[in-house]
Amino acid sequence: MRAPSGSDVAVGEVLLSVENVSLSFGGVKAVSDVSFNINKGEIRAIIGPNGAGKTSMLNIINGFYHPQQGRITFKGKTRSEMKPHEAAYGGIARTFQNVALFRGMTALDNIMAGRSLKMKSAFIWQLLRHGPAMREEVEHRQRVEEIIDFLKIQEIRRTPVGRLPYGLQKRVELGRALAMEPDLLLLDEPMAGMNIEEKEDMSRFILDVNEHYGTTIALIEHDMGVVMDLSDRVVVLDHGVKIADGTPDEVKANQAVIDAYLGVAH
Amino acid sequence: MAANAAATADTFPKLLIRNAQLFGSRPAMRHKDLGIWQTWTWAEVNDLVRAYAVGLHKLGVKRGETVAIVGANRPRLYWSVMAVQMLGAVPVPVYADAVADELAFVLSHAEVRFAAVEDQEQVDKIQSVKDRLPKLQEMFYDERRGLRDYDHSHLHPMEDIIAAGREALADPKVSAWLDAEIAAGKGSDPSIILYTSGTTGASKGVVLTGERSIKAASDTVAFDHLTEKDVALAYLPLAWVGDHYLNYAQGLVSGFCTACPENSDTAMADLREIGPTFYFAPPRTLELLLTRVMIRMEDAGYLKRKMFHYFIAIARKYGERILNRQPVPLLGRLQYWLGELLVYGPLKNVLGFSKVRVAYTAGEAVGPELFNFYRSIGLNLKQLYGQTEAFLYLTAQPDGEIYSDTVGRTFPNVDLRITPDGEVLFKSPGMFAGYFKDEAKTAEVMTEDGYVKTGDAGFFDEKTGHLKIIDRAKDVGKLNDGTLFPPKYIENKLKFYPNIREAVAYGDKRDFVAVMLNIDLTAVGSWAERNNVVYSSYQELAGHPLVYDMIERHVAEVNRSLAADKVMAGAQIKRFLILHKELDADDGELTRTQKVRRGFIADRYGPLIKALYDGSTEADIATEVTFEDGRKGMIKARVKIRDMQTAPAAGIMGKAA
Fold first, then answer.
1. pLDDT tens digit string along B578-600?
2. In terms of CA atoms, which chain A residue is nearest residue B147?
3. A14 lies in which domain range?
4. Burial B501-540 (b: 16+ CB within 10 A, else e)
5. Does residue A123 share a domain with residue A42?
6. What's the gap in Å between the CA of A108 and the closest CA on chain B?
7. How many domains, chain A?
8. Residue B438 included in any domain
9. Which of A175, B169, B316, B613 is most buried, with most CB under 10 Å away?
């Protein structure tokens, strides 16, 4: 399904690591000296109370924010900061906390938009509906239909996403991220605002993506049940600082984590 | 032409071969997959099914044994039915949404060794009850998703079986062997076993034979002039006799194309895309479509709404007559033509009905408003009546003789009889060969001279010669003076009014018929707004004298309609009351499928029933109710009772004139 990338990382080895990364917005320290890694093929959860710096962390990996200090190593290449297009071409895709789809476009078109990076024909040829460009579009359309089939959203493929319920919008956004055939998928609170049944569906899809496509996944999530069930390893942030890092069971028993979530009596 | 050729083929596999010869390049099956419609011609289907049959033979399927087919309408499942029939084995379709227990019952009763299933869900269900299915050996599936990591020692993808068969077919000896197997199939052999969903006791397996099925299907294909150019959408359950008849049997006999939708959620959109020429829908689906249309119209702009209502009124005036090719004044024709351009045409297009030549509905009573709406906009909607045991068609409405309250004339070659008790009996070309492994039940349902008891009560309407179905025979009671009392028939007539949500009729072993009614809050509420009736609760609205007046007018109309039937004239409603609270499944008064539980209601509302029959004009009632969170409370009310005039029976009117 995917073309081999330049520096292929073996399963189990480190795909991405952040070292001593710090990010401040003026006086506000969003992330302070955080280091952790993500192994290829695993599901890594990033958890923590509100304001811990989780979305900032994801934005750093993605290249939206540039840290003042620290290094990011992705597929063996180390940088002091990630540029968004480097991340995208490198095979990092993400979804957003508040769903950033093109509201007037149909679900199908939104997911097709995720294929733009893979389109080899120049824009001008697509505009003129030149033969090879059309053939390429058919190929892309097939990939997108496979994703639609995978996510079971056939009945809404031609519905403008602005009209869809929240849960389905999130699924379409996942589809758009999958259309990029990513090596690393960043999910920002994929379960937000969902009831139990919807969460189970989304969990199933996330597991399928990990098993079927072999995609490495980093997700931010508040629902502890989901985190414990889905993830291989968890990193816990609080007030911009890493306070725990390990398997779900290790993290659950960690006193610092319990204090952070439940609060400590003074 | 197709029907004549069918006369020589007495099994479905032989029909398939004939179709490949006569219409080899015409589409036989379509399926929307990955967003586009894939097509297979009759020649391609024939090749595929032959390969599949050889593959199944290699797997060990033998002549005469049963093979389960579990899934929704997908081409490979239909081809599984065909391939199994080619080998002379018997397919046993099961509903895709059956729970594991139901599946276990059917599969073990039918003693299947092989099961053709749609996807992972069905595989999981069957594996979960494997210990109850000692005979089950091999399963094969259509959709690969999710099954990658399963143990494949007794599980196979259908693709592989078909591929293996294709390889083997390259050998001319194998091809000749298959031809011989197909020729060896006799029309009198069982061709399929359809289990009827048992609302009364366990499911029974209805055994149908190829010869009878083809004969019945040939009759209906001729009746509706279906040809190889027609198209139908197969969206109702594959295991249902209607689908086997309307799509499978008629499709093979006439050569028309069967289209399978992408999945059940996209069925309505796929209907639009395919534009079938033949359509079937149960009344509930038609109701839902109409409601959706009406709601969207209410939201439309002023001009569109005015246009819609104006032209629908035109349609009501002339539509039926135009459909029946009866004389219509020129101005009327022009207005209807304009309406077709502006309203009916686009509406039918949106619903997917633009190309439908003939549409049927069956299974429940159809409201006259609903029925007439569709017919008036040009959809040739007709009613039919039948049973699994008859292989569907017993009666159908011919073009030009359409009434909302009948189920049609007896079908050609079908023999219908009505017992003195009102039960309908039949003998038909398609009738079943018996219940599988159940001689006792088969004997129970047949009379000595070979007629089958339907279990339905009905009568032939004198004026039209059509059959009218009243109720299930065992529900029909008698008033103390001997008049037939069919509670559901009367309740349905009342429920056709939007203002009446639910009705419960009593009269068995009583002197007269009395009904308890529920008003519909939405409909009556909006009526109240428009008529300046003030109310602060359902109970108050239900007890309001003006509401009673309005409902009384509806009951009077129902009485008049009952009076028009000699048989029903004595069952007119003499007294009625409006209940102070809605009947609710949470309180046990309705089943989960919204059917009234008359006995339970009679117990609970005993004081009211007593008052209905002892002449009181009002009665007190206190009922316990269950709120949605499970808490219980009491509701007290004083319910008023009204007396009704009954209309004189039609026969008497005639004499006076």
1. 999 888 877 778 876 677 888 88
2. A212
3. 1-91+184-266
4. bbbbbbbeebebbbbbbbbbeeebeebbeeeebebeebbe
5. no
6. 10
7. 2
8. no
9. A175
* B468, β-bridge pairs: B459
Residue B324 phi/psi, 5-degree rounding, is -90, 5
| Cβ-nearest to A155 among B34, B145, B269 | B269
Check: CB of residue B31 under 8 Å from CB of residue B37. yes
Q: Which two tokens stand for residue A169?
A: 């919008």
Closest A-chain CA to B145: A150
Q: What is the mean pLDDT of residues A228-253?
A: 92
Residue of A nearest to B264 (CA): A155
- Select from A124, A148, A181 the last residue of a domain: A181
Name the domain count of chain B.
Answer: 2
Q: Shortest Cα distance from B264 to chain A (angstroms)? A: 9
* Chosen domain end from A128, A149, A181: A181
Q: Are residues A198 and A82 in the same domain?
A: yes
CATH number, domain at A255?
Answer: 3.40.50.300
**A140 and A196 assigned to the same domain:** no
Phi, psi of B194 (to 5 degrees): -110, 120
Please judge whether A155 and B263 are an interchain contact, meaning their C-beta atoms are less than 8 angstroms apart.
Answer: yes
For strand B452-460 and strand B467-472, is the pairing parallel, antiparallel, or unpaired? antiparallel
| A194 and A206 housed in the same domain | yes
Same domain, A86 and A208: yes
**Whether residue A162 is found in the same domain as residue A265:** no
- Does one domain contain both A177 and A117? yes
CB contact under 8 A, B34 and A155: no
Percent of chain A with pLDDT over 90: 58
Binding-site residues on chain A for chain B (CB distance < 8 A): 108, 141-142, 145-146, 148-150, 152, 154-155, 157
Note the pTM of the prediction, 2 decimals.
0.80
**Which phi and psi angles does B287 have, rounded to 5°?**
-60, -45
Partner-chain contact B266 A142, CB within 8 Å: no
Shortest distance between the Cα of A175 and any Cα of chain B, in A, equals 15
Domain span holding position B505: 476-656
